[in-house]
Amino acid sequence: MENNTEMTEFISLGLTHAPELQIPFFIMFTLIYLIPLVGNMGTILLILLDSHLHTPMYFFFSNLSLVDFCYSTAVIPKVTAGFLVGDKVISYSAYAAQRFFFAALATMENFLLASMAYDHFAAVCKPLHYTTTMMTGVCACLAMGSYICGFLNASIHIQDTVSLSFCMSNLIHHFFCDVSAVTALSCSDKHVSELVLVVVASFKIFFALLIILISYLLIFITILKMHSAEGYQKALSPSASPLTTVSIFYGPTSCHSMDSDKIASVFYTMVILMLNPLVYSLKNKEVKTAFKKVVEKAKLSVGFTS
Q1: Were 241 and a residue from 22, 42, 224, 283 both cysteine, which residue would form a disulfide, CB within 3.0 to 4.6 Å?
Q2: What's residue 96's pLDDT?
Q3: Which locations, inside or outside the cell, does it occupy (predicted)?
Q4: Pair type for strands 171-172 and 89-91
Q5: Cα gap 59→166, rounded to integer Å
Q6: Cα(112)–Cα(249) distance, rounded to whole angstroms?
Q7: Which domain holds residue 23?
Q8: Is the Cβ–Cβ distance between 80 and 118 less than 8 Å?
Q9: How far is CA 148 from the centre of its chain?
C-alpha cells in the first residue's frame, strides 16, 4: 500500500475527450469565468463608491461577491487552461490547496446567505429595532463568523486528505479535484473519513438552511399581515434577490453517477457564480441607480478632460 505522500500528482479526465470540443469549451468556460469576475468585482467597487449602499444588506452582499470571485478562481482557470493547452495534470499539493479553498469558500457562502436572511428578517419583522439589531459590530461578527466556519470546515477536509493513502490509478474521473472522485482512488478505509465529512457537511447545510427557511417564513408571515399594498411591496422587494440566490444555491443536487456529478458540479461551481451578480444587479433598483450614477460621473469626467 502506497502512502499518500508518494502520490505526487493526479490527472483529470475532464468533461470530454473529443478534440473538436476543446476550443468551444475553452471559450464557454472563459466567458463563464469573466462574467462573475467583472460582475462581482464591479459590485464590490460599486458598493464601496456609493454611500447609499453602505448598509448591512450590501455589506453582506459585497462579502458574498468576494467569496464568489475566489470560489470561481479556485476551480475555473485550471479547468480552462486544460482545454487550451491540454495540461490536465494537478500536483498533490495543488489538489490539497484546491480542496481546502473549495471547502472553505462553499461554507462561507452558506453562512453568508444565512446572515443575509437574518438581516432581511430584522429589516421586515423588527423594523423599529433594525438599527440596533444590525449594528456595524454585529454585521462584522456575522461575516467574520462565516469566514471562521469556512476555514474550520476546510481544516477538517485537509485532515481527511492527508490521512488517505493511494495505491490505485491517479486518473480522476472529473474536470477538477472533486472530493468523491479523488476519494474513490484511495485504498484506505474510507468509512470513517466519509462519515465525518457527511456529518460536517450535513450540519453546516442544515444549520444555515434552517436559519434561512425560518427567516423567510417569518418574513412572509409578516408580509401577509400587512394591509397596505405599498408596505407589502416595500417589504417584499428587498427579499426577492436574496431569495432567488438562495433558491439557486440550494437547488442543484449531485447524483451518484460520475457524469451526473460533473453536470451538477458545472452548475454549482460555475453557473451559480455567474448568476449571483446578475440576479442582484438586474433585480435591485438601488444597485442599478448607483451604477447609473457612476456611469454619469464617468461621462462627465471624460467630457471635462476632453
Answers
A1: 283
A2: 80
A3: Membrane
A4: unpaired
A5: 43
A6: 12
A7: 4-305
A8: no
A9: 16
Q: Look at the alpha carbons of 31, 174, 153, 275 in this order and tell me if their dihedral is positive or negative.
A: positive
Most confident of 81-85, 207-211, 231-235: 207-211
CA distances from 297 to 24, 50, 118, 301 (A): 38, 12, 35, 6
Residue 164 CA to residue 182 CA, distance in Å, equals 10
The Cα–Cα gap between 48 and 167 comes to 51
Give this prediction's pTM: 0.79
The residue behind cell 488517505 is: 164
Residue that the C-alpha cell 462627465 belongs to: 300
Structural domain tally of the chain? 1
Say if residue 140's pLDDT is above 70: yes
Look at 76-90, 199-213, 277-291 and tell me which has the smallest mean pLDDT.
277-291
The model's confidence at residue 267, banded by pLDDT at 50, 70 and 90, is low
Residue 126: φ, ψ to 5°: -130, 60
Angle between helices 22-49 and 56-73 (to 10 degrees): 150
* Bridge partners, 90 (sequence order): 10
Fill in the DSSP letter of residue 90.
E
Total length of the chain: 306
3-state SS of 150-211 is HHHHHHHHHHHHHHCCECCCCEECCCCCCHHHHHCCECCCCHHHHHHHHHHHHHHHHHHHHH
